[in-house]
Design a protein that fits this description.
homohexamer, 246 residues, alpha/beta, Rossmann fold, four-stranded parallel β-sheet, Hydantoin_racemase-like (chains A, B, C, D, E, F), Asp/Glu/hydantoin_racemase (chains A, B, C, D, E, F), Iso_Racemase_Enz_sf (chains A, B, C, D, E, F), Aspartate/glutamate racemase family protein (chains A, B, C, D, E, F)
């Protein structure tokens, strides 16, 4: 199967990092097409960033559909544009936050999220409400790390910072698992699992395996109900280039 | 005060219609600047429409801030981009759905929403959850009317369709008020109130009066917490023109 | 417009204080009729106080209706008797807690309430549930100040106490706005807003501006549904004088 | 034990009816003191009725405390004044709606309420929220019977009307028990249980037995927390006579 | 009346302890049949314990029904097998957690639970959700005491430990009552109530009095709806002996 | 990987049916060990059935752990014993209801469940609450088919009955996907998907693919928190044979 892994920010180094993590978990025969948005912010940390990331993200969804991919993964922990992407796609579209949270629920009765800036916490909390996870997630913990600090390989300093916050979560929140709250932490998952002795879940790899699972079941995005394909209508200005195909 | 009324779709006729409604309720001294997005969809009915409307909407927010407006109203019942707009603005930003629902709660213990296409119902329902209104709103009722059918003055046929749905709401839902679920219905509010004998609330005029109220209290968007101004970061491609000012 | 501002306790000095605050924010042409209950407790801090405040409050609603006021404001942060008052009135009736919370939601994604005695916290929390604000309000904070300590102009000592609690709220609760939890704090709103750099919302002035907004839209209390006028029935003893007019 | 059964409306015939029902279920040694409010409405069906019933009800609580009763029952399905009464009392105070709903939960996984006028349904629904019963109660069903129609022995016509609504509840709501939504239906409980073959629960008798249970356990209203006794403060006018004892 | 008090673990000393507590509160004429499961764990602290306790518990329910008891009490704070027991029984079945929580709500606006091992906290929290008590219970507090430490009379050391946790609950949680979270604490209820000056509620005695109350009202488990008697079907192996009677 | 597929009832024909479905979706290298409980009910439709199925189910979990399987699937839509199983296992344990609901959320914004007897509906509804799916599942629909009617290959008559209910769900509930509410419907998934044109999700195959996904990520049941391994304690009688290994 062909799986499009979309980094919805415009930072190519981060795309590469995710792709490495994704390729380490794929089944035989799964091909990862790692791409990033051609337009938009270098990282997604605010509602403005998210809003301006959407056109580039949707363009990638359209491109992937045209290329016949079997699934899309949106690799940003805020799951930006998930509903819009599902309207455009017939292949399944998986957000890494939803994927990580689902996986966490299968191996622990509760989890905490360890994420980047405090600024992003409310976004995670809205997702928890939306996904029905408020009673499973005990706390969303910010580390104060900006997304772009995780652009390349994670430094020892930041590894320590993230590991320390995970340890605090285990000590104070009474949880059985940790969800990593940024695609840029994908390279830490294995070592943290070993160090902490509990499941540590990275959304990128979780989403890749869920995409394979859906593909294996032949499940595709429903085109009946809320994710039905939008009808054609006039789009004006630069947005016209991103509009759904007629 | 100077109030920017933003139609976040690109249909100028609809902007004019809203402006007429807004100007009928303003206090002495309030000036309405009615604008629409320069880029984006002709109407907002799907998640894709909403996503692609955001850059143009945010550009208007930036423009309004630069022009020193005292408040912004986002005149689409899905309240698109409300969080992002509040990040960019120091003036208050009011969505017409939130405004209409708040007003309805002050004059009735429950209300129903009468809206356009069935397609838009889930968006309204998500707003109800977000605004804590699930126990106050009994039902969101679709009329099957597309937004652009309401572009110019509402036809007699559509007036009847909307009025009939309102009557059904009163008969079946046990509510004390009706909220109109589209900015394009702003011209029907007065006649429906008279015909139905209950408060019928249009979000455009509700938002305009709330904006005046906030201005009268000197209240502006909090720059502490979630609506803090986004820091500068690289934006790539056509999105760079919509990015927050440095 | 003629707006009846009702202090539902029997302390005239507090009525005067509210009236001053109200008159500072009214639009040209709005007349404030400030009154207090003729019977009942000197302040409202317990369920017993609230229960025994209701007859006097409803008598004022009746009097105001007879006098043809355009709106009523119930100026006690517990919003006592709001449903009963709306049954009796055709003019809109606004409680200052509901008003303040609505305004806070328009300028901040979350707020904390700073109120008087710990005793009153559960009342505020029940209102939060009733108004759908539980996810917007992070915390209700008691200062330990009795309502009657705020009877006249607020002393420097109490100003400091209240200001300190507001600062704690900003530091610990992560909120973007403060709601003042007592009508007796109405004189502190402007200075606290300036001192704290975030929106500080007083319910008295918020309610007054909402009342003007409703009047400007021609919205009146729905007489269909839960707020329908009660039918006549026998009332016995001293309560007969407070009963709804036949 | 001495149990004060308070009819919070002023209709003595209804008090008598309740007392008969209560005396049929008491244990040996339990004495029922059946009283009604000396001031207030003849029946409680609206928020205004409830507000104006509170002073008379609280006066009875005070009188019962002075007389040393072991428990109080407030015999109106809206549980009016329950919090205020608990502030005044050291003996337990039980509302008949809370009592009936608790009992229903012990013998059925879900129940419906069959009540009087549609007007009273929202009150019952607010109690369901307050008591955490929203998932246990499937529906609150109005029969259109005014409370005073149930003043004396229930007529055959009304028995049939109520029985029919109970049958509808069983057929349509999938519930295992019926809760009768008015103290005036206390005389129907036994015959309906036999006719319907499911538990039919009347709040008056349920509350009496709960009061005996609490007394048997030596449990009294907590004077720590929200039900602490209110401190003395000035009460003005006719309300002074109802105020808590110094 | 004949009341079967079932200890669903296999530790007879604990049964004796509960029986003593139960007999201290029964009315004249109530006979306590205290029994324990013949098969299963010595104490119930995990989901595995609970699962393996169920066959023995259900066998006791069957035996009690055959013996014509008037009510069953399941005396373990996790209310294990309550739904299954109600399917098998026509007499009422009361769990001690549900009983204690109901009683607490009648005498205090909020309570905390003081229980045994931290391991059992999530079970109590699931019950709170199931019983609609999440807003009434402020906290479930573990003392770290294993259930079997409470097998015989509670030692002075453990009395102190439990008393201290109750005091912490009052000091930190702002509650008006304490619920004891283990049947093995039944002997502490009276002394703790006196020492703490607030209602302290033990589920065993609470359930016994509720059982008497239900019996006094003639209420029995509904056989319509979810608690209908299971039809006969093949049961294989050792489980056949526990299966519902044909 | 070695995946233990546990049918927690004692009907071997149903085990075979599930195994066929499971083997159709496994990846290369996944081995399905299909087993059923040695003791317990022939089908699980009531709380009593579930209670008496647990010992046999847990025995299989123990056996699978001893055999070193990489994951367990509990193949009954009530997800019986899931928490207890996770306490016993270090391999992941997946319930088919949780699996199916998770998959449904990835391809549709809402779904309905089509299940067997009305009797089983409350169990499904409790799972929806537990899994945070109440806002995603619009309705649980019973077909009136007993589980054992689905023991062998599903008859044409029952296929039609189930298909018709699915069509009703799509027509009336406005959902985008169907979840099949019984492991015995696993053979219908593909044909229903084709016939209905929307995703139809069977829990057995969904769980198998999720198990592979978890294995691919190296995720195992957390032994910290609620799923920690139970300590040894005395188990009496026939239950001793099912107790956790020392």
């Amino acid at each position: 199967m062909k799986l499009q892994l979309i980094n919805p920010n415009t930072t190519a180094a981060m795309t590469d990092k995710m792709a490495v993590a994704a390729r380490q978990v794929v089944s035989v025969g799964t091909q990862i097409l790692a791409v990033q948005s051609a337009t938009g912010p270098a990282s997604i940390e605010t509602a403005v960033d998210e809003a301006l990331a959407l056109p580039g993200l949707l363009a990638q969804i359209k491109a992937g559909e045209a290329a016949g991919v079997d699934a899309h993964v949106i690799a940003c922990f805020g799951d930006p544009g998930l509903r819009a992407a599902r309207e455009l796609a017939t292949a399944p579209v998986i957000g890494i936050a939803e994927a990580a949270m689902q996986m966490a629920c299968l191996v622990a009765s509760s989890f905490s999220v360890v994420t980047t800036l405090a600024r992003t916490v409310p976004t995670a909390q809205r997702l928890l409400v939306d996904y029905g996870m408020t009673s499973r997630c005990r706390r969303v913990r910010a580390t104060g790390i900006a997304v772009l600090e995780l652009e390349a390989q994670t430094s020892d300093l930041l590894r320590k910072k993230i590991g320390d916050e995970c340890r605090l979560a285990l000590a104070e929140d009474g949880v059985g698992a940790i969800v990593l709250g940024c695609a840029g932490m994908a390279d830490l998952c294995t070592e943290l699992t070993q160090a902490l002795g509990v499941p540590v879940i990275d959304g990128v790899t979780a989403a890749v395996k869920l995409a394979e699972a859906l593909a294996g079941l032949g499940l595709r995005t429903s085109k009946q109900g809320d994710y039905a394909r939008p009808g054609a209508k006039p789009y004006v200005g630069v947005m016209a280039q991103f509009a759904p195909a007629a």
